[in-house]
Design a protein that fits this description.
alpha/beta, 6-stranded parallel sheet, elongated
């Protein structure tokens, strides 16, 4: 018996108890579609993934970004062209801001001290941020190439489950899910960070307001 015939026999056997005419019937999928947009849960997951989390009030955002860049002694910071200038007020004249765009090469981007971006949303019950080159995020490379990435997330952007996050994403944009610094491990489980992206991830969680059902990101 050929491999093809064996496969078809197994398919026939698997469908033996299926009523005639129901092969194309939709399958009920009981996915978890709602969940708590729990900030403490999100923070716990992100810290477990070695993310540095900073929880601040809206008025504290510029000072928080300044403190992080100062800790890294950053002198060059790559930012999206539409990142609000008010967020960067505390960085000071010693920091050179480099605007993202087609003219900024990957090599030059790899030489900056860090990048600062926003994101689309975050999922509390799994831990993870979504960026998709949308507003305040710049190109995909901005969150992948620099050695340090600082991401700003507002509490009103947080959702409970992946199913709630999907409608907030634009289908024609590539999505990057970020849970922590880029990391990989060999067969002996030796962890190496920075193999495929930033070695360091800082999440600035701005506690503006809890998310309400039906709100966009």
């Amino acid at each position: 018996m050929s491999a093809r015939n064996r496969i078809l026999e197994r398919v026939d056997a698997a469908l033996a108890d299926v009523p005639p005419g129901s092969a194309g019937a939709p399958v009920a999928r009981e996915y978890l579609r709602t969940g708590p947009a729990d900030l403490d849960m999100l923070v716990a997951y992100m810290r477990e993934y070695n993310t540095n989390v900073h929880r601040v009030a809206p008025a504290e955002l510029p000072a928080a970004l300044a403190a992080i860049t100062q800790r890294y002694e950053a002198r060059t910071v790559a930012v999206p062209v539409d990142l609000p200038a008010a967020w960067l007020d505390g960085l000071g004249p010693a920091v050179r801001l480099i605007s993202d765009g087609p003219g900024l090469s990957y090599q030059r981007l790899a030489e900056v001290d860090c990048s600062i971006t926003a994101c689309v949303t975050a999922v509390a019950t799994t831990g993870g941020l979504a960026v998709n080159s949308g507003p305040r995020q710049g190109r995909r490379a901005l969150s992948l190439v620099p050695d340090r990435h600082i991401c700003v997330l507002f509490a009103s952007q947080v959702v409970g489950t992946p199913a709630e996050a999907l409608p907030l994403l634009t289908p024609d944009r590539p999505v990057v899910w970020i849970a922590g610094p880029s990391a990989t491990a060999d067969i002996e489980l030796t962890r190496v960070e920075g193999a495929h992206g930033p070695r360091t991830l800082d999440l600035v969680l701005v506690e503006d307001a809890p998310r309400r059902d039906g709100e966009g990101g």
